[in-house]
Amino acid sequence: MMKKIKKADRYVTFIPFNEETHLFIDDGIHFTSTNAKLLEYGADIKSYEGRTYYEYSADTPDKLKLFTNAYDLRYKALYQGEGFSAGVSSYPQIILFAGTFDYGASATTTIKGFEIEAGNWVKKVDISEVTLIPIKIPIDLSQYLPS
Length: 147
Known about the structure:
mainly beta
């Protein structure tokens, strides 16, 4: 049975909708939605390839109060007795990064079959071969507010 695996990414819950969504913090704290009710909270109307969406930016402490439970989702995979940082691709593949679970791919492993890909030691395996452990790292959004 195929189990949907949540993409490793940043997430936040928007309190008025009680809805978890992808969080963007690259150029300020914001998220996007196709829900027009977001306009009631001061969202901007955007368009991409003919599709309309709404972008809510939390650029003040008051707007930030509408966010809760911000976290960065990563995965650890246990494979043949060792722990690895794991990148989840399309089901059923899991991409394992060589080394101990430290997000560093410079470490080595005794397990055969790892190859260098994009500068990292990786091995692609079926999800049935690993125990996948989600790791939620809390994000303090107040540090991203404009000063």
